Amino acid sequence: MKKWTGLLISLLILILIAYYIMGFMVERTLNKNINAIHKTSVASIYLDQYQRGWFSSRANLVLEMHVPAQQVKDESGMTKNNPPVDLNIKFPLMVDHGPFIFTDSGLRFGLGYVTTKPQTRYGALISYCNNTIFKYSLPSILTKGKTGPQDYQFEWLGLTAELKISPDIEQVKGYWKAYGFNGDAANVSFKLGKVLNEFKFYYTEGLWIGQTHLSVPYFTLTAENAKVVEMDAFDLSLGSDISNKLLNYNADINLKKLSINNNTYGPGSFKLSIKNLDPSAMADINKLQWNMLENNQHPELNMLALLADLPKLLSKGSELDLSEMYLTVPDGTITGRLNIVLPQSDISDAAQIMQKAHGEGQFKAPAATVKALITASLESNSSTYQAQSNGQTQPTTTRDPVPESSTTSDPVNGTVNPEAQADAIIKNYINKGLLKVEGNYYIVDIKIENQQLFINGKLFSPEMLN
């Protein structure tokens, strides 16, 4: 009996000591994480009045903000000085020590648990691996009502999110998941499926590197029992990495189907990568951008400093690679590819580096789709121009926004016919070699070499667009 009593007393002593030691560890982790947050002359955050106890501690999380004095002009055009603004916001914190943490939401295991004071359901758990874990959730909500004779209903299916941060904020990963959102009102209804976003980043060489992925399984919008918009399986992936001391970015977009007003688009895919950038130059550019946000008194000088880093950024043999692009449209399939490479160079002039670029590519689209896009652009430009003309105080003669060589008027009402204009523009581009006809498709072949741009085998000049 004495043996078991001794073991029990020893175990209790070890647990008591563990609580006190973990109090030190939690304080150190919190200070490391908060000190790792980037501080600026505009905003800073720190821990204050940390009072460590045996089983729990108390502290204040302080957010300080400083808005410098600014010169502004009033309605009369007079310049006046706005005084600086200083804010100091304190959030009282309660820190419960591990290894066993009793909270209002249940038993937790870790080094410590940080929450606001008074304690709320949402807080940060510091795990045994010294990671800080935030978990958040929103419940599902169903709302029903009636406005006059119209009934409406909205259903939010809930949300969960988790964020895990390593010591010194060197790695960040997590996810958020929205379980769906449905609604029905005034003969209009919509349904949004489960949306998931996952991400993982790590900090190295002054850059945040990693991957993020967003997926939307479906979305529908119905009006008067007819589907106006229907989307299936949209995926977006963005990523970056450093390989062989070179920085790379990539983007990948996929779509299974998108239907708008009975016109179906998809499947489609878009894969773009930017390779072989100088990571140290990109880190310098990021620092300059932070400085521009903090101090915008000399934007011209900041922009010049930003441009000065571009040659170094592109000096490692940078490459732009559109490896895959296709989208099925009602009239066929739009396809494209493009590859542009810059040679390795120590030249400090970005313009000279661009002159040494070489590459090739091809874009192909149905003729009917090209005409529809040009027609829509002409109609939009014409509407904008007429709206601006009608808003003038003095009457002016409405002029067509495109060159006279491609202007075609309707003989009945004298207005410009956008479809006829589009035909004229396309014919002009075909005659000049900017468009190549292949069956029911238009093709644009691109080649860059010896500081020259060739379109469909012909040397390009800006005059060809007129």
Automatic annotation (TrEMBL):
Alphabetized Pfam families for the sequence: DUF945
Region named Disordered: 383-417
Protein name, per record: Virulence protein
InterPro entries attached to this UniProt entry: DUF945
